[in-house]
Design brief:
FAD-bd_oxidored_4_C; 5-stranded antiparallel β-sheet; D-lactate dehydrogenase (NAD+) activity; 17 helices; transit peptide; alpha+beta
């Protein structure tokens, strides 16, 4: 193919591959969606190389799909139209730490854990924690969030500037180093969450935070899901600055105990973390105890040492793997909807009832502090009834959310899995999004077949 010949003309042989194993590695992500091979995988080292790749691809109208670590959950990186998969693993440099500005500049292939290891030397940390050790480019592409978003915000809140290579090879910046600006359109917000459909990120400037003086984590158990969600609303309404507040239902706690060798009470549970100075934390904890005393809670226990706290959050983050281990031979589907807090209890109750109605194995976890919950579903891909029921279940909880002012995805993104709900969620605004896509990528080469239905 002519475009491959042109790529080979400027890329070293060890940074361009049509090897079957390499192609297979870039044909899938962590989702249940069907894999599809790219034609070629390339490994750039800088923005100029990405720009040249995009020029060639645009000239030949060849699809380009950016690839980080492949940890996405809605098929974002699957190249259904073949073409070029751009692997950013070699662009993994931390370019500059700016402690006085609470900023860091990185390449897109830097992982969250690598960044925090470096930031720790400066008494800083990066806040967004989606669970998986994803790349920062991928996290920006999907507008990731996670357990700490209730206090620090989501990925979009951390992006100060992006260096982006557009479809025609143009290299541009979306922001600057200033803490705020009233100048022009908010391109940071536009490109963050665009899932590789508007451009390839080659550099990110991100907000970071000082490591708090003290961190305390604990578990509160409840007799009902309703009581657990009510506790979340009451705690947030009281102005208590929790850093994380996560719901894990009784079915998920059962799987966690098996997988992580814990012995947590198999009841609806809130995992709660407080951060700050010692005096302020003690006040927040006492206030939280008073709030819980008025609700139908069972216990409220704190993990005193760092190792126990790490074990607690490790257990929360490995819920999906616990289900995989508990149901060998079945495929995992993780749903992802977000609702106003006032609608959350009803949504979770409806989701749990629907699990029974569709006879599916699974449980519910969620970043309930911001109204985002997930159902972890296990189903047999060889069983047409289970596959159909899983799809019906996902449709049920999405439509429940949309009918109550929510979103079909709180953090996983659209990819291909949530395309079918875009018109219902966005209405006329979807046409504006398509117009933006067309103006920046008229040949539709950037991650085609994602986000927009009937593209």
């Amino acid at each position: 193919m002519k475009y491959i010949t042109e790529l080979e003309a400027f890329l070293p042989k060890d940074r361009i591959s049509t090897n079957t194993t390499i192609l297979e590695q870039h044909s899938q992500d962590e989702s249940y969606h069907t894999p599809s091979l790219p034609v070629v995988v390339i490994y750039p080292e800088n923005a100029e190389e990405v720009s040249r790749v995009m020029e060639i691809a645009n000239n030949h109208k060849v699809p380009v799909v950016p690839f980080g670590l492949g940890s996405s959950l809605e098929g974002h990186v699957i190249p259904y139209h073949g073409g070029i998969s751009i692997d950013f693993s070699l662009m993994d440099k931390i370019i500059d730490v700016m402690p006085d500005d609470f900023l860091v500049k990185v390449q897109p292939g830097v992982s969250r854990s690598k960044l925090n290891q470096e930031l720790k030397k400066h008494g800083l940390f990066f806040s967004v924690d989606p669970g998986a050790d994803a790349t920062l480019g991928g996290m920006a592409a999907t507008n990731a969030s996670g357990t700490t978003s209730v206090k620090y915000g989501i990925m979009r809140d951390q992006v100060r500037d992006l260096e982006v290579v557009l479809a025609d090879g143009t290299i541009m910046h979306t922001g600057n180093l200033a803490a705020k600006s009233s100048s022009g359109y908010n391109l940071n917000g536009l490109f963050t969450g665009s899932e590789g459909t508007l451009g390839c990120f080659t550099e990110l400037t991100l907000r970071v935070y000082g490591i708090p003086e003290m961190i305390l984590a604990g578990r509160a158990t409840f007799h009902t899901i309703d009581s657990a969600v009510d506790a979340v609303v009451n705690i947030l309404s009281a102005g208590i600055q929790v850093a994380r507040i996560e719901l894990v239902d009784e079915d998920s706690i059962k799987q966690v105990n098996k997988y992580s060798e814990t012995n947590y009470a198999e009841m609806p549970t809130l995992f709660i973390e407080f951060r700050g100075n010692e005096a302020g934390l003690m006040q927040d904890i006492e206030f939280t105890k008073e709030i819980l005393a008025d609700l139908n809670h069972d216990t409220f226990e704190f993990e005193k040492d760092t190792q126990a706290q790490n074990k607690l959050w490790e257990a929360r983050h490995t819920v999906a793997y616990a289900y995989k281990h508990g149901f060998p031979g079945k495929q995992l589907m993780t749903t992802d909807v977000c609702l106003p807090l006032s609608e959350l209890a009803g949504a979770i109750k409806s989701a749990k009832q629907a699990l029974k109605e569709y006879n599916l194995d699974g449980g519910i976890v969620g970043h309930v502090g911001d109204g985002n919950y997930h159902t972890t579903l296990m189903f047999d891909t060889e069983n047409p009834v289970e596959v159909e029921n899983a799809e019906k279940y996902n449709k049920h909880i999405v439509e429940y959310a949309l009918n109550r002012g929510g979103s079909c995805t709180g953090e996983h993104g659209v990819g291909i899995g949530k395309m079918k709900y875009q018109a219902e969620e966005h209405g006329k605004a979807l046409q504006a999004m398509k117009a933006i896509k067309l103006s920046l990528d008229p040949n539709n080469i950037l991650n085609p077949g994602k986000i927009f239905p009937n593209e």
